[in-house]
UniProtKB/TrEMBL annotation:
Provenance organism: Pelosinus propionicus DSM 13327
Pfam family, one: HisKA
GO MF annotations in UniProt: ATP binding; phosphorelay sensor kinase activity
Transmembrane segments: 12-31, 194-213
UniProt keywords, alphabetically: ATP-binding, Kinase, Membrane, Nucleotide-binding, Phosphoprotein, Transferase, Transmembrane, Transmembrane helix, Two-component regulatory system
Chain ranges of the Histidine kinase domain: 271-476
Annotated SUPFAM superfamilies: ATPase domain of HSP90 chaperone/DNA topoisomerase II/histidine kinase, Homodimeric domain of signal transducing histidine kinase
Top enzyme class: transferase
Protein name listed in UniProt: histidine kinase
PROSITE patterns, A to Z: HIS_KIN (PS50109)
EC id: 2.7.13.3
The reaction(s) this protein catalyses: ATP + protein L-histidine = ADP + protein N-phospho-L-histidine
Length: 494
């Protein structure tokens, strides 16, 4: 037996839910419509009986018979009364052909006039006893009758109103009756047409939904392949409305990937750094000792070169270890401007050695909860990256501003710029565009930013320079503990 696939199951669930909703709403609307229809019909019946009472000729029904001479039977009298009252009945304007009306005479115990189209069988061919119960009232009222004689056995709603003579005596009733079976049939027919139209629209929606689902499934498969290849930044879905969602997933995936890389590097650093540094320290000391001996004077430059390379390797291991350290940060309420002023002499000295200059523009910003040493390292790494990007010298701008609930730090250089395809790779350990770089400096910056619950974004144009923008949330003292917890738990070995 063939299994039902996911799309078919989803379609069946949608159809079931929509049908249940349609039936519930339709029954509710049918009930409301029927109530409104009955209220409207009741008003029509009252209007018709009022009109008949006002337009009836003066005198009793017996006076009408007396004016036309004696008759040999009651049936002949009823026929004469019906004939005389037809002009009154024909002058009634009715909204539909499901309403009948006329007069009932107590003296004759029968309906004596019926409209809008006179039905002789009702006037002459029925038993008069049921009418006595229906019209045995001295006040106007509504009566619900099953198997109504007026409508040849159909259910009906009847409004009766007493008719009096010139002396105020009740001589009969004016009545108006509506065929309730016809009303209900019309309502069900209208409901069935509505259900048919809605069901057709449901089928159309299912076809459209199925097409959209297939496109979405195809896009998700392509997007998954792009994730594996690391090329999701410019992915566009066939459904343009879905593209922002996929872009958000791509951004979050990239962040998770970057953090995972840092975790791996941290684990590697913690495991091998000390084992490597110890023999390197021994080798460096031995090279320095041997380089100072007279018999190796001619090899002095080679010894110095080996010592320099060992020092360079030691520097890489030091940066490597900084990714692995999980020391708790010392958060305190600091003003970012004060930290920049403290480190300014150091970065200015670095800039002068590279034939460059530093320009700072500090705005009015509120205090933040920061780890001062980490922020020092963050600014120092970014400024040195900017200086390395300007081999012929230039200017670096450091700005601080406040934007709504965020404090923004931006560091801009006027260097070579970074190609767009390389921006997403920045922060990956050991990925660098420098000839002698390690790719660990920016990875450390990302780690510091993350532990401060901030965000780091990079914008660059080749030949124009690069802007590093860090956004710090303005936090209350109640949230300080959560930041500390985040900083301690970040990059712990798995």
């Amino acid at each position: 037996m063939k299994k039902i696939n996911l799309t078919t199951k989803l379609n069946l669930k949608i159809i079931g839910v929509v049908l249940l909703l349609m039936i519930t709403v339709t029954v509710h609307n049918l009930w409301l419509s029927l109530q409104e229809e009955n209220e409207k019909n009741a008003l029509w019946l009252v209007s018709i009986t009022d009109f008949l009472v006002k337009r009836k000729p003066e005198g009793s029904f017996s006076d009408i018979v007396a004016n036309h001479g004696p008759f040999q039977s009651t049936q002949q009298e009823i026929m004469m009364i019906n004939h005389e009252l037809q002009p009154v009945l024909q002058s009634v304007l009715i909204p539909s052909n499901i309403i009948k009306f006329g007069f009932y005479s107590r003296q004759h115990d029968s309906i004596v006039a019926l409209g809008p189209h006179s039905d002789i069988s009702i006037l002459l061919g029925i038993d008069a006893k049921p009418f006595k119960k229906a019209f045995n009232s001295d006040t106007e009222r509504f009566i619900e009758r099953k198997n109504s004689l007026v409508w040849h056995g159909a259910n009906s709603l009847i409004h009766v109103k007493p008719v009096t003579d010139q002396n105020g005596n009740i001589i009969g009733h004016a009545f108006a009756a509506i065929n309730q079976d016809a009303v209900n049939t019309a309502m069900w027919k209208r409901t069935a047409n509505t259900l048919g139209a809605v069901f057709f629209m449901l089928l159309v929606c299912i076809v459209i939904f199925r097409e959209l689902f297939n496109k979405l499934k195809k896009d998700m498969q392509l997007f998954a392949e792009r994730i594996l290849s690391g090329c999701t930044s410019n992915f566009n879905s066939e459904l343009s409305e879905f593209t922002p969602i996929l872009q958000y997933i791509s951004d979050q995936t990239e962040k998770m990937t970057r953090l995972d890389r840092l975790n791996i590097i941290g684990e590697m650093a913690a495991g091998i750094a000390h084992e490597v540094r110890n023999p390197m320290t021994t080798v460096r000391g031995l090279l320095q000792f041997m380089g100072n001996k007279q018999e190796f004077a001619k090899q002095k430059e080679k010894f110095n070169l080996m010592i320099d390379e060992i020092d360079r390797a030691n520097k890489i291991i030091t940066e490597f270890l900084s990714l692995a350290k999980n020391k708790a940060m010392n958060f305190s309420e600091k003003n970012l401007n004060d930290i920049i002023r403290d480190i300014y002499p150091l970065i200015q000295a670095d800039a002068l050695r590279n034939n460059s200059d530093i320009k700072i523009s500090l705005g009015d910003i509120p205090p933040l909860f920061l780890d001062q040493d980490s922020i020092h390292q963050l600014i120092l790494n970014m400024v040195r990256n900017g200086l390395d990007a300007m081999p012929k010298g230039g200017l670096i701008h450091i700005n601080t501003t406040k934007n709504e609930h965020k404090v923004i730090l931006s560091i801009k250089d006027h260097g070579l710029g970074i190609p767009k395809e390389d921006i997403d790779k920045l922060g990956t350990p050991f990925y660098t565009t420098k000839d002698h770089g390690t790719g660990l400096g920016l990875a450390v910056c990302y780690r510091i930013v993350h532990r401060h619950a901030a965000t780091l974004s990079i914008s660059s144009e080749v030949g124009q320079g690069t802007i590093f923008t860090i956004e710090f949330e303005t936090l209350s003292s109640q949230t300080l503990s959560s930041i500390k917890d985040t900083s301690v738990n970040t990059l712990k070995p798995r």
